[in-house]
Amino acid sequence: MQTVKFSKVDPTEFFKITRHRVNQYFKKNNIAKTGNYKIYIKSFVMLSAYLVPYILMLSGVISGWWTLLAYVVMGLGTAGVGLCIMHDANHGTFSKHKIVNRLMGYTLNMIGGSSFTWKVQHNILHHSFTNIYELDEDIDDKVLLRLSPHGKKRWYHRFQHIYAWALYGLATVSWILIKDFKQLVHYNRKGITKDTGFNPVAETIALILTKILYIALIIVVPAIVAAKWYIILLGFLILHVVAGFFITVIFQLAHVVEGADHHHFQKEHELDNTWALHQLSTTANFSNKNRVLTWLIGGLNYQIEHHLFPNISHIHYPEISKIVKKTAQECGLKYNEFVSIFGAMRSHARMLKQIGVA
Fold it and tell me: Based on the structure, what is the number of domains in the chain?
């Protein structure tokens, strides 16, 4: 696996101080870094939003064109499961019990994704090499989108700040039908699957079977018992437009915004920053005072804290963010944040426009 070298020198000792203060916070308050009853309540709500409409369709309570409304709610539930449950679980922070984390991590498979490919892309590549072009797959060149100033520029990218929002609604459709397969083939070929302790053949079989099961349950079965096939296909598309838009926008606002640094991978190249300072400079927060939004999106508006402490559950981010921000200010370091989600979205649009013409 390709990698880069981060500097080991931090004259400010930012992360050393921050980590000590964060650890003291948990020790003083005698609380675990993993989730507690709050995350279980949230999980019940999000899973209900996903499963209840589906059960109502199969039981005949909802049928015909009304199934489209059910798919809308399922789309919101899909986003909720992705942002609030599987994210913590696949980071190992949902619970202190590994078996619970593993089971809840599979909720990603339940909504059509792959917990294995996601953990490789997100936990290993994205968190290790945030905003480093050619290593962080999140900012790879996409169909019609240039998300890094180091990416390949096309003439149509000058308009991407306009059409990107529509493409975000198609992100999870592409993810479950194409992206997971392409990633697994790539990881198998590069030896990443084996290097991370997994069997390429077993993972390939598991991926194919879970995709077949997902399509059967979300499309085939409802088409048999709830509505005409074309209504169900439309509903499936609506589900993923809703889920894809919310999930993609939330993650884009963390790194493809003004103020977040971008880098280009070079062999034998050592970055000027330590890993922690790199995370701080390439990541941004938004709407940190909006408790409702924080609850709905699994604390992912606290991306700085998440990137510095991926081993801590999102339910603790609001409190530890006070420590991180204060320490950054004491060390004279920038702490990227936007007051509101709309401000972050405007910044994202400006960044897309800038990248599209630069």
Answer: 1
The token pair at 12 is 């400010």
Q: Report the C-alpha gap between 351 and 356 in whole angstroms.
A: 8
What is the model's pTM? 0.92
Query: Per-residue b/e over 255-292, b at no fewer than 16 CB within 10 Å?
Result: bbbeebbbbeeeeeeebebbbbbbbbbbbbbbbbeeee
40-51 pLDDT tens trace: 999 999 999 999
Kindly report, residue by residue over 271-286, the tens digit of the pLDDT: 889 999 999 999 999 9
Q: What are phi and psi of 296, to 5 degrees?
A: -70, -35
Helix (H, G, I), strand (E, B) or coil at 133: strand
- Find out whether 32 and 26 touch, Cβ atoms under 8 Å: yes
Looking at the DSSP assignment, which residues form a beta bridge with residue 70? none
Q: Which residues contact 107 (CB under 8 A, 6 or more apart)?
A: 47, 81, 85, 86, 89
Nearest-5° Cα angle at 338, 162 to 43: 90
DSSP secondary structure, 21-76, as one string = HHHHHHHHHT--SS--HHHHHHHHHHHHHHHHHHHHHHTTSS-GGGHHHHHHHHHH
Residues of the chain above pLDDT 90, percent = 93
State the alpha helices, DSSP H only, in 82-124: 87-90, 98-105, 107-110, 115-118
- In a 13 Å sphere around the CA of 168, the CA atoms on its Cβ side amount to 22
What's the pLDDT tens digit per position in 182-205? 999 999 999 999 998 999 999 999
List of E strands, 137-178: none
Cα separation, 33 vs 311, in Å, equals: 8
> Tokens for 258?
């003004």
* Residues of the domain holding 162: 5-357
For residue 352, the surrounding DSSP H or E stretch is: helix 341-357
- For 278, the token pair is 């790199």
- Start-to-end CA distance of the chain, whole Å, equals 30
Specify the DSSP element, H or E, that contains 271. strand 270-271
